[in-house]
Amino acid sequence: MTARLSLALVAAMLVAGTAHAHKPSDSYLTLRTGDGGTVALQWSIALRDLEHAIGLDADGDGAITWGELRGRHAALAAYALPRLQVAAGGAPCAFSAPAHEVERRSDGAYAVLRFAADCPRGGDLEVGYELFFDLDRQHRGILSLNGGAGAQTFLFRPEQRRASFALDASGRLATLCHFWRDGVWHIWIGFDHILFLLSLLLPAVLRREAGEWHVVDAFRPALLDTARVVTAFTIAHSITLSLAALQTVELPSRWVESGIAASVVLAALNNAYPIFREGRWLMAFAFGLLHGFGFASVLGEPGLEPASMLVALLGFNLGVESGQLAIVAVFLPLAYAVRGSWAYRRFTLYAGSAAIAVIAAIWFVERFFDLKLVS
């Protein structure tokens, strides 16, 4: 039984590692309501996503020029606008012809559509969003609505495609709940973050003496060790998540994602060749600073109003911690139950750490050199 559980733990790590962990595909939609039923819209869509959907690189040289984008303006509008519905009081709003711009963000260039919607007076504002969901199940649309009562924020995803906004409500509780759910979801599909956390948890039910791993005698020492590691990781990524989300500190997305992959490699190798023997919480804190920049990819880009940023930041951070605690609550009791088996000490710890290191090394090469090694 213990051997089967050990094999199941390694299998779960390998399944997690088969997915590509990277900055999620996002678009940013800002709506501003005005007098007379008018709504001004700005929609920022990543060129890399549009290239995949409709093709922008006409000469195939790997670089999208303004001329190539301008030549596809009509196709871009024809593709995007039908995938956005705005209505008021149940009646659809009429869109004006969009103006086209380009803006640069930390993860690349974005096409910007600016247009207006003429909406019937009265009633709640209803928004439907369908962009890229048929191509990327991890895509999100980040909406910021600025009306007379203040800012409201919403996250569109494949299972959450429609939203209704009361223009006389602040929406702070809804924003908190939406970003809490997104924080939980982000940690559960953030396979690099999961594998880093698992690398830290694998030795928690063991102690190292004279170069060998020995089982802990009771659950309490394992729990306390895990609490130190997870707390250090939480404090660290909360610091950089806040700094990046508030745009106090910004790093290029490619550097951050490559660094996160490298941190997973080092954390996994530390289980076989310990550098941080008694101070794994220090490693968790140091690398947690880097992971915080990765978490901030959801919040750190322009598009959220300052009034809603702090609420979104709080909700997302609480969601990340909830997701982490759920993983710990499942993994630690299982690891403790099989800690005394040969399979755990020799197979799950060493083979599992080696598998994590190999997977993360592939991610590092893909991210740093912008390659696609695994389909």
Count of helix runs:
11
Query: What is the gyration radius calculated from CA atoms?
Result: 23 Å
Low-confidence stretches: none
Order of helices and strands: HEEHHHEEEEEEEEEHHEEHHHHH
Q: How many structural units, i.e. domains?
A: 2
Number of strands: 13
Q: What would you call the shape?
A: elongated
Q: In which range does the helix fraction lie? A: 40-55%
Can you offer a commentary on this structure?
The radius of gyration is 23 Å and the shape is elongated. It is 51% helix and 20% strand. It starts with a helix and ends in a 6-residue tail after the last helix. It has two domains: 2-21 and 190-369; 26-174, no CATH class. The chain is α+β, with helices and mostly antiparallel strands. Strands 1, 2, 5, 6, 7, 9 and 10 form a seven-stranded mixed β-sheet that branches. Strands 4-3-8-11 form a four-stranded antiparallel β-sheet, with no helix packed on it. The model has no long low-confidence stretch (mean pLDDT 86). The longest helix has 32 residues, at 306-337. The protein contains eleven helices and 13 strands.
Concise synopsis of the structure shown:
This protein has 375 residues and is of the alpha+beta class. 43% of the residues are buried.
